[in-house]
Amino acid sequence: MHDKSPRKSPTLPASILASIKARRTRGSGQHEPHDRDRGMMIASYNVHKCVGVDRKFDPARTSHVIREIGADVIALQEADTRFGERRGLLDLNWMERETGLFPVPVSGVAKAHGWHGNVVFFREGLVRDVHQVKLPGLEPRGALITELELKDGSVLRIIAAHLGLLNHSRHQQARMIIDILRSREECPTVLMGDLNEWRLGDRSALNTLASVFGLPAAVPSFPSRLPVLALDRIMANRPGLIDKVETHDTPLARLASDHLPIKAIVKPPTALAAAV
Q1: Alpha carbons 276 and 77: distance in angstroms, whole number
Q2: How many domains does the chain have?
Q3: Residues 119, 90: Cα–Cα separation, whole Å
Q4: Each residue's pLDDT tens digit, 157-209
Q5: Is residue 32 part of a domain?
Q6: Which segment, 19-33, 51-65, 108-122, 137-151, is predicted with the most confidence on average?
Q7: What are phi and psi of 146, to 5 degrees?
Q8: Environment class of residue 248 by beta-carbon count within 10 Å: exposed (0-12), middle (13-18) or buried (19+)?
Q9: Domain membership flag for residue 212
Q10: Residue 58 is part of which domain span?
Q11: In a domain, 86, yes or no
C-alpha cells in the first residue's frame, strides 16, 4: 500500500538553502557505471531541445550526456522541434553506435524521434506495445506508453510524459494518464518525465497521480546549475519496484540543458513479479 497521508512540502527558501549548501560539495561529478546485477537503470531527461544553459544548440553534447548516464531505458522530453513540422534533434545512428540504445518506434512522425517531443530509448528487450497519447491542455503535450518484454519474458510498462505549465492542464493530463492505466491490464509500471510540478497538496497534479503511484521522491533537478525544483520525477505503481531516485549531476549535464537528468534502478526481473 502506498502512503497517501498528506505530506508537507519544504518551503522554496529552504530548498534554495539546501541547494546552495549541496552545491559546495558537488565537486567534479564523477560517477561509476551502475552494477547491472542490482537491476536495470532507468532515466528521464528534459534535453531542452539540445540547447544548453550557455544558449548553444549542441545535439552532440546532449548525446554525450545520454551516453554518460548509461541507462538501459531513458525517456527524453523536448527531443523534437516544437512547432511546424516536428523534427528530431538527435543523431539516432550515433545513439545506437555509441550507447547501444534503440528508439521505441512511433507511427505518424516521419522526421520526429518521438511523440510530442517524448522519446523512449531502450537497450535490450522487445517492444510489445506502443500507445501514443495526446494530452489535453492549451500547449501541445503528450505521453508515450510502451510495454517492454525483458529477456526473461517479464513485462515492464514505461510511461514517458511531459506535463504542461498550467496547473489546470496538469490536473487534466494526470487524470487522463490514470484513466488510461485503469483501462489496461495491470503490470509493473514506471511513470517518468518532466511533470512541471514541485508542489504537493490538493492543488498539485502529483496528488492525482498518487492514487496509483504514491507520492514520488522529490529530487531537485531544475535549474541544472543550482537545482531547487523537483520538476522531473520517476515513480512506480508498486512499492519497492524502483530504488533511490537521484540526479545525474556532472559538469557536462549542468551545461547541456536547464534540467539535470534523474535516474533510478528497477529491481531485477525476479523482483518485478514479487513487487505486489
Answers
A1: 30
A2: 1
A3: 11
A4: 999 999 999 999 999 999 999 999 999 999 999 999 999 999 888 789 999 99
A5: no
A6: 51-65
A7: -135, 145
A8: buried
A9: yes
A10: 37-274
A11: yes
Up-side HSE of residue 203: CA atoms within 13 Å toward CB?
Answer: 5
* Phi, psi values for residue 270, rounded to 5°: -65, -30
The DSSP output letter for 20 is: H
CA–CA gap between residue 221 and residue 117 (Å, rounded):
19
pLDDT tier at 23 (50, 70, 90 boundaries)? Answer: low
On whether residue 226 sits in a domain, the answer given is yes
What was the pLDDT predicted at 33? 67
- For 234, other C-beta atoms within 10 Å of its C-beta total 23
Q: What is the pLDDT of residue 11?
A: 55
Torsion of CA 60, 144, 230, 175, to 10 degrees: 160
| Residue 4 in grid coordinates | 497517501
Average pLDDT of the residues of the chain = 86
Concatenated DSSP letters for 21-73? HHHTT-TT---PPP-TTS-EEEEEEE-GGGB-TT--B-HHHHHHHHHHHT-SE
Q: What angle do CA 255, 143, 154 make, to 5 degrees?
A: 100
Query: Which CATH number characterizes residue 235's domain?
Result: 3.60.10.10
Q: DSSP readout, 154-200?
A: -EEEEEEEE--SSHHHHHHHHHHHHHHHHTS----EEEEEE------
For the stretch 59-100, pLDDT in tens is 999 999 999 999 999 999 999 876 656 778 898 889 999 999
Is residue 177 a contact partner of residue 161, using CB atoms and an 8 Å limit? yes
What integer pLDDT is reported at residue 38 of this predicted model? 78
